[in-house]
Amino acid sequence: MDNQRFGVGIAGLGLIARTHATAYARRGDKVRLVAVCDADPAVANSFADEFGARAYTDYREMIADPGVEAADLILPHFLHKEAALTVLDAGKHLLLEKPVAPNYPDSLAIYQRARASGKHFMVAENTRYIAAYRAIARLLAEGAIGEVIQVRTELRSNEKRHLSMPGNWRTRYELGGGLVLDTGAHSFYLLSWLLGEVAELRAVGRKVFPLANEIEDTAEVTGLLKSGAHFSCMFTSVSEAPHSERLELYGTKGVILMDQAQDPVVRVFGGDHDFAGRAVLEVQPALDAWRPGGWHFESVLAEVEDFVGSLADQREPEIDSRDAVYAIAVVDAAYRSIRSDQALIDLSHLTREDIQ
Ligand SMILES: NC(=O)c1ccc[n+]([C@@H]2O[C@H](COP(=O)([O-])OP(=O)(O)OC[C@H]3O[C@@H](n4cnc5c(N)ncnc54)[C@H](O)[C@@H]3O)[C@@H](O)[C@H]2O)c1
User: Fold this and answer.
1) Ligand 1 touching residue 14 (CB < 6 A)
2) pTM of the shown model
């Protein structure tokens, strides 16, 4: 620790790493980015020069750097378990990008090792910090639409570039590729945060765009929540629209419609004669997801700043990482259904309290 500032190292310097680094710079009173690591030395060196950090190409060496007290792992999915356990076994704090790991047993193993280590651990699940979802969580708590009886989520991205790169980790299941894993981690976390656990589900995954890889580019997971509400989650990675998310909540007294590609982003309806609805004004429209001011950028900043604040103040972060582990149990169930001709998968036995 230097002047009460934690030393952080980031491993994996892809697209989202710059947003994490920006958040550390904004919390420069509490934290200092001391090291960065990428398997590509040119990427590691230029990032290190820009942020005044030491460059590494081997994450084990970065984790062993005595100045690194907390590691922020933004790595391909197949590396999550090994790298996370290396951080925890080195006695360091950990911020781990979603999905916790490519499957539930490995996700649970990381969570349990983190608990046993006594170190600060948080899953970087930006969904918890998206302004529109936070506003909706408040509306639900206030009973704005009564009891939710149906919910629909949609997550649109365009991964055609990665999915056409031979050898890219996103093109192979054994390297942690998979649309339901990548984006279901977000949507199933959202369902579990806002509405509780899943009772049962069915899933379909398809390839509708002709790219030479084994990964589904379109998927739909439907089922029943333990609350009795019907849910449906739609995913695409070949969307020719900006990365965006949609949520529809149908309640006994009203409806909430949210879409990051529309203005207003969130609208609440109070019956079948309420044609105008009510815009939720505290949620600013932000069509640009990736540059400053965009909803996605803001959510990742807020997430990393919460990690820093919780580490410095020795408090729990807002996110309960157990929910992010639970989301991977739902991902596993969805793939079981996809691989067994849309079989109905019973999840009623699993509770978040089982994740200890
Ligand atoms: N929360 C979000 O919205 C969000 C958005 C993007 C990515 N992510 C997550 O971030 C993680 C990384 O995804 P990405 O899209 O940045 O991937 P990416 O492939 O774009 O970047 C990964 C980086 O890791 C580097 N790398 C690969 N192997 C390495 C190794 N052994 N040691 C060090 N560096 C290595 C690569 O060179 C690359 O620069 C994933 O967990 C992903 O799900 C989350």
Assistant:
1) yes
2) 0.97
The reply to whether ligand 1 has any atom less than 6 angstroms from the CB of 13 is: yes
Per-residue pLDDT of the chain (356 residues; tens, 9 = 90+): 776 899 999 999 998 999 999 999 999 999 999 999 999 999 999 999 999 999 999 999 999 999 999 999 999 999 999 999 999 999 999 999 999 999 999 999 999 999 999 999 999 999 999 999 999 999 999 999 999 999 999 999 999 999 999 999 999 999 999 999 999 999 999 999 999 999 999 999 999 999 889 999 999 999 999 999 999 999 999 999 888 999 999 999 999 999 998 888 999 999 999 999 999 977 776 655 556 668 999 999 999 999 999 999 999 999 999 999 999 999 999 999 999 999 999 999 999 999 99
Which structure tokens are listed for 98? 């979603």
128-301+323-346 has CATH 3.40.50.720 classification = no
Q: Is 46 exposed, middle or buried (0-12, 13-18, 19+ CB in 10 A)?
A: middle
Assign 3-state DSSP to the chain and report helix, strand, coil percentages, each to 5.
40, 25, 35
Which residues on neighbouring strands pair with residue 206, listed in sequence order? Answer: 218
Which CATH number is correct for 6-126, 3.30.420.10, 3.40.50.720, 1.10.10.10, 3.30.950.10?
Answer: 3.40.50.720
Pocket test for ligand 1, best of 10, 16, 188 (most atoms within 8 A of CB): 16
Distance CA(102)–CA(80), nearest Å, equals: 8
Which atom of ligand 1 is the closest one to the Cα of 73? 11
Ligand 1 lined by 319 (C-beta under 6 Å): no
